[in-house]
Amino acid sequence: MKFALSILPHDSFINEYYRKVNELRVKKQMTLPVILKNERRINLFLRTEDVDLINEINKETILQQPEERFAWLRSKKDTF
């Protein structure tokens, strides 16, 4: 979640989901399993064709293909 927020800090769904997960963890409640619909919205690796994500990536580099964006995200995550 922190990685997703570092890339898309203004994404309201990611912010709200992060808040909810933190609340559950404080209460020592489970955060898994996740609903697939939610996972598709919070997991940047599943959003390589998302306009908001593309715009954020394009601030640093221009990548045309989803697999290039996936690889860029992976390299960012590896050093996060």
Automatic annotation (TrEMBL):
Q: State its Enzyme Commission number(s).
A: 3.1.2.6
Arranged from A to Z, the UniProt key words for this protein are: Hydrolase, Metal-binding, Zinc
Q: In which pathway does it act?
A: Secondary metabolite metabolism; methylglyoxal degradation; (R)-lactate from methylglyoxal: step 2/2
Q: InterPro entries attached here?
A: Glyoxalase_II_hydrolase (IPR050110), HAGH_C (IPR032282), RibonucZ/Hydroxyglut_hydro (IPR036866)
Gene3D superfamilies (UniProt xref): Ribonuclease Z/Hydroxyacylglutathione hydrolase-like (3.60.15.10)
Asked if the Swiss-Prot or TrEMBL record annotates the protein with the keyword Hydrolase, the reply is: yes
Keyword check for Zinc: yes
Q: Which residues form the Hydroxyacylglutathione hydrolase C-terminal domain?
A: 1-80
One GO molecular function term of this record is: hydroxyacylglutathione hydrolase activity
**Class of the enzyme per the UniProt entry, highest EC level:** hydrolase
What protein is this chain from?
A: hydroxyacylglutathione hydrolase
Q: What is the lineage of its organism?
A: unclassified sequences, metagenomes, ecological metagenomes
